[in-house]
Amino acid sequence: MARSDGGFLRSAAIFALPLVCVFASLFCGRYALTLPEVCQALVSWLPGGPAAVTPESATLVLQVRLPRALAAAAVGAALSASGAAFQGVFRNPLVNPGLLGVSNGAGFGAALAIVLFGGGAAVYPSAFLFGIVAVCASYWIARVYKSAPTIMLILGGTIVSSVFSALVSLMKYVADADTQLPSIVYWLMGSLSSVGWENFWSVAVMAAGCVVLVLFAGRVDVLSMGDKEARSLGLEVGRDKGVIVAAATFATSGAVCMAGVVGWVGLIVPHIGRMLVGSENRRLIPVSMALGGAFLVVVDTCARCLWASEVPLGILTALIGAPFFVYLLKKTKGGGWR
Amino acid sequence: MTGSASAASPTADRAAGAEAARSASPPMLKARDVRFSWGDHRVLQDFSLEVERGSVVCLMGVNGCGKSTFLDCVLGENRPASGVIEVDGGDTAGMRAWERARLLAYVPQMHERTFPYTVEHLVLMGRTAYQAGFGSTDADDRRRALEALKTCGIDRLRERACTALSGGEMQMVLLARALVQDTPLIVLDEPTAHLDFKNELVFLETVERLVRERDATVLMATHAPNQAFHLAAAGLNVKVALMSHGRVAREGTPDEVLTPDALWRYFGVAAAVAEVRFRRGGDLEGFDDGRAAVVRQIVPLSTTGSETGEDTR
Fold it and tell me: Could you report the per-residue pLDDT of A30-68, keeping only the tens digit for each?
């Protein structure tokens, strides 16, 4: 599988894409900035750099647009890496990172925090915590005979997801209709509008999860052979599957607590990655991270620039993702899939 | 239908003799008094079996007699309630997955393909147990993969997506994957169940080559009695272990075990044993040397109308 020069150039282009998108997004917005303004702002950020000529544009770039673009890239990368890993481990190309209930669990955590504390800083840790709780519950349900077979995990995830979805409805029902309900609904549709540097602890969580996923990518391939074959090939199936699911859950929880429920990215981006570099997860997971990061930066930039008021992310990713997925299904009917 | 119980003892004597001849090394696989239940249903009861080095053991019996359950015990998928399974002299009970994967490789009946991995990548997964840390394949792994693909006669498929292969080609890929595991024992679970007429023969011929050239030992669950005759006619050391009610009821060479009497008793099938005689250079063009001039074949005639197998407990 020697990579040709063309393959190397393509890989380089793919990995440069999120950086280019982040940089480009700094120019976009209600208040247009010029190239010197953006560059000066970035340089002034460096330790020992000269002070910015225009403090307003520096604030806009460094405190508003840059953290938001980086957050979008991190969320997209985390969701895509988790999606690719989940699709491999669960041997199902139609799986998304929310399979084991992390999205609904986090949704409930956020809604609970909004109802109890009226939102604010409590939303993030609460969403994160309940995302993890949901996946642990799915795993606990799936545990039979000292292992967690794939089909039981999927069933456990379905049960837990629907329970937390009911609990979210309950929160909506008891929420104050004037103040709390809109924030719950808005949060569930996904948005990065309130992101600042103070939320970047969840980027660290996402990064940690993604690092583990990249390291375990080769084992995702082996696990996608099925539990029995993976074990006969020499994997400690229960342990490795647990590590991968935990890493993907951390990455997804970090993403969901930062951006709310953003659908489609974790499902679609790994498929685009497969079309570009093949199914081997050691290449697919890093490539998915790059593509997903770039994709979400573009979508988020659209979300804040296209209309006068912000469009929730979840709406845009679904509107862009769904037609693309239909196209993909039609196209791959005759392709490598069965 | 009488005297079947005595059939086991001469076989055991002969097995012991052959073992002594093989420098007294332990058998490749030795299962002793293995018990396994699914809930209240006892699947394996005091199951004992020995697989000599360099031999092919065909595990036979009706559907549900416990063949796959036993293979799963060997593979570490099932944990026996009691009894010992030793592979190459080591107890498998306490083995880590990677230790086991260096002793025995497994070819499933059918592999469910989900992602279009290339054939080479699929075969390289057979090196998992040898890769330290997070496992990257090196030049040696790729050399072994290519060699295994050549041994199985499918090196031309190296770059193909596995989802684009036929069932027969896929089964050969799985055999190649088992080969790069570089194990002394290969476990096959009805490997030809989904293959056509020709591919079944291609698969058997490859297994034959592995035993002959690479000194492999094979434990194979199969439903086709003629496969045992075929491999025996090719000059291999073939044993048939006929399972009934969770234990090995009869054990020996295909000629000894696969008699009309046994097929009647354990399968509920009335069958004749036909002897097909070949004249070299005569009836069949290109028939290889080193094969018996007489090949036995089971010809099933009818079912007996009775439930299969009588209670031997």
Answer: 888 888 888 888 888 777 767 766 778 888 888 889 999
Written as six digits, the tokens of A313 are 């992310």
Angle at A47 between CA A44 and CA A50, to 5 degrees: 35
Residue B311, pLDDT above cutoff 50:
no
Cα–Cα distance for residue pair B172/B190, rounded to 1 Å: 13
Q: Where are the domains of chain A?
A: 71-330
Q: Which of A228, A234, A279 sits opposite B115 (nearest CB)?
A: A279
Residue A51, token pair as written in the block:
């002070």
Q: Which domains does chain B have, with CATH numbers?
A: 5-256 (3.40.50.300)
Single-letter amino acid code for the residue at A6? G
Q: How far is CA A118 from CA A115, A123, A131, A179, A259, in A?
A: 5, 9, 20, 8, 18
Query: pLDDT band at B4, cuts 50/70/90?
Result: very low
Sort out which chain A residues have CB atoms less than 8 A from B125's CB and list them: 221-222, 225, 233
Residue B296: strand, helix, or coil:
strand
User: DSSP alpha helices (H): ranges in B39-116?
Assistant: 67-75, 97-103
pLDDT-based confidence at residue B285 (cuts at 50, 70, 90): very low
Given a contact cutoff of 8 angstroms between Cβ atoms, the answer to whether A304 and A29 are in contact is yes
Does B116 contact A at CB distance below 8 Å?
Answer: yes
Measure in Å the smallest separation between the Cα of A76 and chain B Cα atoms. 23
SS3 content of chain B, % helix, strand, coil (to 5): 35, 25, 35
Residues in chain A: 338
- Interface touch A336/B164, C-beta < 8 Å: yes
Q: Is A47 on the interface with B (CB under 8 A)?
A: no
Q: Give the gap in angstroms from C-alpha B62 to the nearest C-alpha of chain A.
A: 23
The CATH label, of 1.10.3720.10, 3.20.20.60, 3.30.10.20, 1.10.3470.10, for the domain at A71-330 is: 1.10.3470.10
On whether the CB atoms of residues B199 and B131 are closer than 8 A, the answer is no
Judge: A235–B125 Cβ closer than 8 Å, yes or no: no
